[in-house]
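User: Sequence recovery, please. Input:
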């Protein structure tokens, strides 16, 4: 069985020739410029934008540091959007991206210096939400989803109860799963160019937030207000487990497998048991959910992220001083035996069919 489906598998016969022609033209356009030329062109664009920003800063920031930074940031960000719409070659793309990122940094920094960190976080959420829809670039849209969702969590940590922060994190997880589960349908609609970058941005926010929560307890605790308390780790793990179980159910339906059958019950039982064994480390079940989406969507990037963060959460759990060595040993032993037993059960209960050549 092929790892990725062919055009013959996913497209009707009438559209296959059109798709092949589009792929061929895209490959010819990409191959027309060597990679080192694209790298040098992009480097030149970033260098040109740096000199441009320095030149404008000398004249604008003299009016007032905070107000000047806000004005200059908005000007550069707006100019970046216009430049990106003007052309899609490597130089203009990288020039617009570098200028836009510098403008965003100046604007957010100016708002923070003029007001406080709460207003800076709010300004980040609003600005990134606007750029997510108006800036026609995959990288910027990914960064907008990443920066905007991270700023939203930080803003809630400063202003709202800690429970709401964890509930919002679960909500962002639900949104990321829905984007990838319905990716094919959403990419045929009006906002098709937003689906993938927004999904990857939300997944990155989720995983890095859980890494900070798992590895850096003190830093994570100081980001809350003094009277704010978050959800217990076990409750957050159960919430993320429910999201993973829902995605598993949808994947089973899409692959014409009965969720109530032997395969579905086996998958649900394994995920539930894994969530119980790693109750104090919510990142493990979250990364397993990303791993599921990666296999379902044939995404090498999602698979790589999930594997790396599963290892990171496992290491964080093992070296966490809040747990005794006995608890860590039992959790590792139990999860290892469970996975080995599950593998043996699957091999015997669901033998792989012979590959048809």
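Assistant: Recovered sequence (357 residues):
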């Amino acid at each position: 069985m092929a790892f990725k489906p062919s055009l013959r598998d996913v497209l009707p016969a009438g559209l296959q020739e059109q798709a092949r022609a589009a792929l061929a033209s895209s490959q010819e356009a990409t191959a027309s410029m060597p990679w080192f030329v694209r790298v040098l062109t992009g480097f030149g664009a970033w260098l040109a934008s740096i000199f441009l920003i320095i030149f404008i800063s000398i004249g604008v920031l003299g009016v007032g540091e905070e107000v000047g930074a806000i004005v200059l940031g908005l000007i550069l960000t707006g100019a970046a959007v216009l430049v990106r719409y003007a052309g899609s070659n490597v130089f203009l793309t990288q020039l617009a991206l570098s200028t836009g990122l510098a403008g965003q940094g100046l604007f957010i920094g100016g708002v923070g210096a003029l007001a406080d960190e709460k207003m800076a976080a709010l300004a980040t959420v609003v600005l990134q939400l606007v750029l997510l829809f108006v800036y026609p670039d995959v990288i910027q849209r990914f960064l907008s989803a990443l920066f905007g969702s991270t700023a939203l969590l930080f803003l809630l940590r400063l202003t709202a109860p800690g429970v709401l922060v964890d509930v919002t994190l679960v909500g962002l997880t639900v949104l990321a799963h829905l984007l990838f589960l319905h990716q094919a349908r959403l990419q045929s609609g009006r906002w098709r160019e937003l689906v993938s970058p927004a999904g990857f941005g939300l997944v990155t926010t989720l995983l890095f937030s859980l890494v900070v929560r798992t590895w850096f307890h003190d830093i994570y605790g100081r980001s809350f207000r003094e009277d704010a308390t978050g959800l217990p780790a076990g409750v957050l793990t159960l919430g993320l487990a429910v999201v993973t179980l829902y995605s598993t159910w949808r994947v089973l339906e899409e692959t014409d497998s009965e969720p109530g059958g032997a395969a579905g019950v086996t998958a649900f039982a394994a995920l539930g048991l894994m969530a119980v064994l790693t109750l104090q480390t919510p990142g493990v079940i979250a990364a397993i959910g990303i791993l599921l989406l990666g296999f379902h969507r044939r995404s090498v990037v999602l698979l790589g992220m999930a594997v790396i963060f599963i290892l990171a959460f496992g290491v964080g759990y093992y070296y966490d001083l809040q747990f005794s060595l006995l608890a860590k040993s039992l959790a590792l032993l139990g999860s290892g035996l469970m996975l080995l037993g599950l593998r043996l059960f699957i091999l015997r209960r669901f033998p792989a069919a012979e590959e048809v050549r």
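The chain has two domains: 34-159, 161-357.
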